[in-house]
Amino acid sequence: MKQTIQLRRFLAAFLAALSGSAFPVAAKATDWQLYSGLDIHGSSEPVSLTDMMSGWDGDFQPGTYAYADARFRLGLRFDHWRLERETRWYYYLTFNRDTSEFYRELEQGLPGAADRRLELEVKGLQARGVRLAHSFGVASFSITPALAYYHVGHFQFGTLDGVSAAGDPLTASAVLDYHFDQDKILEYPADVGDGSGISADLQISGLLQERWRLEAAISDLWNRWQFDDAAFTTGCINLSGGGQAVCSSSGAASGRSGQSSYTTDIPWSLNAGGYDTAWQAGLRYFQHDRYQRFSIRKDWTTPLGELGASLHSTHQIGLHWRSGWHQLEIVSDDVRPAYARDVQLRIGFMLDW
Predict the structure, then answer these.
(1) CA distance 22 to 230
(2) What is the pLDDT of residues 186-211, one digit of tens each?
(3) Exposure of 158 by Cβ count < 10 A (0-12 exposed, 13-18 middle, 19+ buried)?
(4) 26 confidence band (pLDDT: 50, 70, 90)
(5) Cα separation of 293 and 272, whole Å?
(6) Which domain holds residue 106?
(7) What percent of the chain has pLDDT over 90?
(8) pLDDT averaged over every residue in the chain
(9) Contacts of 112 (CB under 8 A, 6+ apart)
(10) What is the domain-level CATH number for residue 78?
(11) Among 227, 206, 225, which Cα is nearest to 216's?
């Protein structure tokens, strides 16, 4: 039972901080601008985001990823330069369909319905940093490279590779390779310092024929996360005997723990689209590794500002409101927060002088 709880914590802990983040709002042609932004983007294929964090007891479908990137930025723009202070929470889990079905059986206390191959990779971090960006023109396009430097407080990076066997009780055997600042599995008493990270972004935008606005932004185009003294665990987990064990352990779980240097990266994100300023309508595509989304949007100019609505291939509906001093976007696939699998929230404020 203790090992079952530990494995459940390992699979669920990495989306436990889905809150806060940032979005650099568009700048006007004024000398100075102070802005702030909150940007939360989360998607979970197998269950709702709430269930991904607290337990898979709701509606389930086999899936292969869970993703969350949340940022809060406070920035200052002068001319073509931007300087931002950012707090970031990032979590990305990838797995095969077998693993999602196995974990649901584990959560529900069900017997194993079939022999399965288990594959899981986790990338998670919480960081604070500064970003410097500079815009310059090439032909009719504006190009904005940006570079961010982070201090990383909490981090979890790990892989799990193994098998589970059909039957009751549920059995599984897996090899674990895990780097962390706090051990969520075998409770190794880690005492590590902060890590560091560097990430480069690139944004390109332009107006064609005074009507068509084209945009493409790549976040984390190149990134590197360095931990000089990361705690680690490599070992073997066997639940209820492990069935056809892929490794041997003394008891339900055993391995080697310690501390060493560790370097890794995370996938980049692409956000690109085109917008017809005459019709006030556009198309957009977003991708973060396995997560992909196509969107269509229509805006209307009103006395309250620019109001808009959007439809997305992830079964989401979005509402948008923008003026000269603020931006608000709410995009979700369910009006009930506890049932939503795909959610995006953006809030931004601007002050020009």
Answers:
(1) 27
(2) 677 778 889 999 999 999 999 998 89
(3) buried
(4) very low
(5) 11
(6) 2-352
(7) 69
(8) 88
(9) 102, 105, 164, 165, 166, 167, 168, 170, 171
(10) 2.40.128
(11) 206
Cis-peptide into 62, omega within 30 deg: no
Task: Classify residue 104 by its DSSP letter.
Answer: H
Q: For residue 233, is pLDDT > 70?
A: yes
Q: Which among 286, 290, 166, 178 is positioned nearest to 227, based on CA atoms?
A: 178
The tally of domains found in the chain comes to 1
Using the predicted structure, report yes or no on whether residue 330 has a pLDDT greater than 60: yes
Pair 313, 337: CB distance under 8 Å: no
What is the pLDDT, as a whole number, of residue 101?
95
The number of residues making up the chain comes to 353
Q: Give dist(CA 321, CA 25) in Å, integer.
A: 13
| Nearest by Cα to 263 from 290, 221, 220, 223 | 223
SS3 31: coil
Which pairing describes strands 171-180 and 195-208: parallel, antiparallel, or unpaired? unpaired
In angstroms, rounded to a whole number, what is the distance separating the alpha carbons of residues 134 and 202? 10
Residue type, 253: A
Q: What angle do CA 1, 108, 156 make, to 5 degrees?
A: 65
List the Cα angle 232/96/13 in 5-degree steps: 45
| pLDDT-above-70 percentage for the chain | 88
Helix (H, G, I), strand (E, B) or coil at 3: helix
DSSP code of residue 337: G
One-letter amino acid for residue 339 of the chain: Y
Token code pair at residue 106: 């584990």
How far is Cα 339 from Cα 203, in angstroms, rounded to an integer?
A: 33
Q: How many CB atoms lie within 10 A of CB 351?
A: 11
Mean pLDDT within 323-339 = 95
